[in-house]
Amino acid sequence: MDTGWTRSSLAPCQVLSLLMIHRSRQLIPISLRISGFLSYNQPVEVNFEAFDLACITGSNGAGKSSLLDALTWVLFGEARRRDDSIINHQASAAEIRLDFAYESGVYRIQRSKARDKSAVLEFSIESEDGRWKPLTEPTLRGTEEVIRKTLHLDYETFINTSFFLQGKADMFAVQKPGDRKRILASILGLDVWEEYKEEAARRRRNNELDLANLTGSITEIEGELQQETERRAKLTQAENEYANLKRLLETKKQVLDQQRLIQDRVKSEQRALEKQATELNSRQTELQNLKSRLAVRDAERAQLQTLLDNESEIRARFQRWQEARSSLEKWEALAVDFRQFEKQRSDPLLRIETERSRLQLEMNSLEAQKQKADDLLSQLPGLQEQLTHFEHTIHTLTVQVNSRPLLEEELRTLQGQKALASAENQSLRQQMDELKERIAQLGVATGASCPVCGKPLDQHERETLITELNDRGTEMGNSFRNNIALLGSCEKRIREIEAELRNLLRVDAEFKLQQRLLDGKHAEIESIQRELDDWQQNGAPRLAALEQKITTEDFAIADRTALAEVDAKLKSLGYDAAEHEARRKAETELRSSQAQVMELEKAHSALAPLQREIAELSQTLKTSQESLVRAEEELAAAQEKLAQDTRELPEIGALEKEYYDIQEQTNQLLRNVGYARNQVDVLEKQRKRLVELKADRNEINIQIANLKTLEKAFGKDGIPALLIEQALPEIELHTNEILDRLSSGEMSVSFATQRQFKDKKREDRKETLDIIIQDAAGSREYELFSGGEAFRINFAIRLALSQVLARRAGARLQTLVIDEGFGSQDADGRQRLVEAINLVKPEFAKIMVITHLEELKDAFPARIEVTKLPKGSQVEVVVA
């Protein structure tokens, strides 16, 4: 299917507008903090805001390239080394933090890795209030993807454009043509077109799925419409069947209603019979109640008669009760006086017991103090032993602590020896290198001059001088090795002393602890002795006095005298509690005779009315028995009639079942009629829906065709290829501007994006990205150049790509770093490289160039000086 798109569909102005989509993004480093990474052990921070163009200088191995490795590792997790090898051997973890400006915000990336553990990555953005808002994802890979999407930049594009890594100046040029084109597409920001293509493909697939669903729905509706005649016939049949069965149902209902009337009459007779039975039961219950009342009244009459028969005995017992009550009243009066005296006795007795309790409580407290004093006395020997132990321990620890100044003095001496030996070895190393160089020069040169007087040396003199220099080198080597041995022994003894000093810190802490424990024991013994002295002076005499007083009852003397006087009055009263209780018991036993006399009086008045009531109840009982017999006979006759009528009832259950079965069939037919009518009615709605679905299908077909066109346009041979073709002239222009300066106008570069296939029969052309070099010898491919010429070509192309990254791809990284090339060029070549860098300087916010050549340092307005110290590499930014 023709998509309707060709590479000629876009005008050049449209291509340029597409390239400008991603403008106005700038990544500019602000500060870099390094700790424990490669040669950087202690924390080092570089402030990039202090310069725009600077050279990074330092001796070989000082850590210049490691500074750049820190940038690639914190941004992308990539460096020259991987895993734990990036961690400084003196550190337990590597950690790098980069703050940079991007677009209108300030971002921070912090990556760290502890030894034998996974790396940790944090990504955040600075908010308006100065706080850092986290952008970190749950996983390392997820956070790296967020960083890549934010910067629109990956590691490969980064090192192919803005980072000229050591030994990789030709990284872009040596790529396969297809890989060059892919990297160039990334530099131009064309990877977004792949996202557009994927989005167009996703939408096309969704539309194709919708189209398939629509086609299925259309086929289904068309199938339904073909069933219209059949559905209408089914509706007519269902309506006829329903009408016939409904007439039969009405007939069955009339028969069932007649039989139900007969059944209702029998049920009415049954209810009347049940009412008669209930009334009969009520009469039987009433008759039984009459019999019970009559029996109760007969029992009451017998009880009254018995009471009257015992009248003389009851009255004699009543007389004895009156006499006992009179005697009890006299004893009660005597008891009142006795209780009054008892009340007078309770107060002095309570005070005596209260005093006894107080004295006993005080004595108990003193006995507890005596027990405590005995316990304290038994503790003294053990405490004295502990005191002696602490004093001995403190003496031992004091001897150890006093050795600290001697160890510290020895440590200072060893550190001084170590520093002197290390400094001497650095000097010896430099002198030996110079001797080695002089010996090498004397070995290859003829007609060399004396280094002292400057006169020419013959062969013998030159050999003699070389021998002397070798002997001097040997002496220096011996001194160097002796210093190495001294450094080793010093280091070993320093570690031993430091271990001893750390141990003395623990000893000092133990000394202070033992001193506090000793002071505590002294205080404890003194406190115990004070308590024992106080007990002997005060507590012990008081305890003896209390024991004597309680034993002899020598307390509360006035209360004891008052108690004796009350006891004498009680004795003269003559009150006998036992006799008083006997009189009370006799009165209680005879007290019931009073009630019996009252019952006797009631019996005389109640006997005659009770006898009349018994006669009336007997007559009522006889009448009720006769009425009950008649009711039982009537109930039996009614039961016989009900049984006869029940036997003549029709089998209504079968009639009801037949009726309900027909009714269910009728309801089912009615549902069938409704379903059939709905099947016919829905066809009209389906006809309307079919028209709408066909219109939707046409619209989706149009959308699918458009999306296929977009897929092809967004593909690698579509808009991206056209954008690359439009961008290549600019890259060629920048490359040739730089290469013209580097080669004095002798070389130029061109890029070819298409070439013929090896198969000459093919009319189309192969997509490629070849590099063609023109010089005095003609046009040649890049692969035919080497050495300084190849480097100048690589440098020009890479620098031009960096400019394109800044201009075309939205200035995503306005930073240029060069760690390559100056050593391979002569003085004129190096000067031309510096001029090329200054040429592109306006395109970048930050440019850093690594060099160890002294003559190039002054060519830059600022320097980042890297030095290697025993504690690790250090960095200082120097601005002229």
Summary of the model, kept short:
The chain has 880 residues and is of the alpha/beta class. The protein has helices spanning 12-19, 64-76, 140-151, 155-161, 177-187, 191-225, 228-309, 311-401, 404-444, 459-551, 557-573, 577-590, 592-647, 652-714, 719-742, 787-807, 827-840, 854-857, and strands at 27-35, 44-47, 53-57, 93-102, 105-114, 119-126, 132-134, 163-164, 748-756, 765-775, 778-781, 815-818, 846-850, 862-869, 872-879.
What is the CATH superfamily classification of the largest domain? P-loop containing nucleotide triphosphate hydrolases
β-strand percent reads: 5-15%
Rg measurement, Å: 63 Å
Total number of domains: 4
The count of helical stretches stands at 18
**Biggest beta sheet summary:** 6 strands, antiparallel
**Which CATH-level-2 architecture of the largest domain?**
3-Layer(aba) Sandwich
Overall structural class, as computed from helix and strand content, comes to alpha/beta
Strand order in the sheet with the most strands: 2-1-4-5-6-7
Helical amount: 55-70%
The first-to-last residue Cα distance is 67 Å
Parts with pLDDT < 50 across at least 5 consecutive residues = 6-25
Average pLDDT score: 80
Strand count: 15
Gross geometry = flat
Provide the CATH top-level class of the largest domain. Answer: Alpha Beta
CATH topology of the largest domain: Rossmann fold
